[in-house]
Amino acid sequence: MIEIVSSERCTRCNICVHACPTNVFEIVDGGPPRIARQQDCQTCFMCELYCPVDALYVAPIADSPLTVDEHAEATQVLMGSYRSAIGWGAKRRPTAAIDASYELLERAH
């Protein structure tokens, strides 16, 4: 579930607003997008993936909102971590070449 849009990191590009399939965000004039409908978040990570500055944190396992301190060191490490883990973004190594999940399809057919 989406937990944080960092006002310090956000460039106000609103890519996350447009990437979200469930319309969780609202555009705010002159500010970062607002998490307006958090309960509608499906934890698809699309917003975090498309954020070019790692300004978002999506909690991977959350059925309800969590209390997350944006400024805590542990949270800072997590922001954009999914995007980093799959290799999206500048100076990151794409992980598609090491993904062997296609073998499951080959074995099933």
Topology, element by element:
Elements: E1 2-5, H1 15-19, E2 25-26, E3 34-35, H2 46-50, E4 56-58, H3 73-78, H4 81-85, H5 102-108
Antiparallel strand pairs: 1-4, 2-3
Structure, explained:
The structure is a single chain. This protein has five helices and four strands; from the N terminus they run E-H-E-E-H-E-H-H-H. With about 110 residues, it is an alpha+beta fold. The mean pLDDT is about 90. The strands form two sheets. The protein has a two-stranded antiparallel ribbon with strand order 1-4. The chain has a two-stranded antiparallel ribbon with strand order 2-3.
| Average pLDDT number | 89
Would you count the extended β strands for me?
A: 4
Count of runs of 4 or more consecutive helical residues = 5
- Please summarize the sheet with the most strands: 2 strands, antiparallel
Write down the overall geometry. Answer: globular
Which structural class best describes the helix and strand composition? alpha+beta
Low-pLDDT runs:
none
Multimerization state: single chain
Query: How would you write the strand order of the largest sheet?
Result: 1-4
Strand content: 5-15%
Order of helices and strands: EHEEHEHHH
Report how far apart the termini are.
35 Å
The amount of helix comes to 25-40%
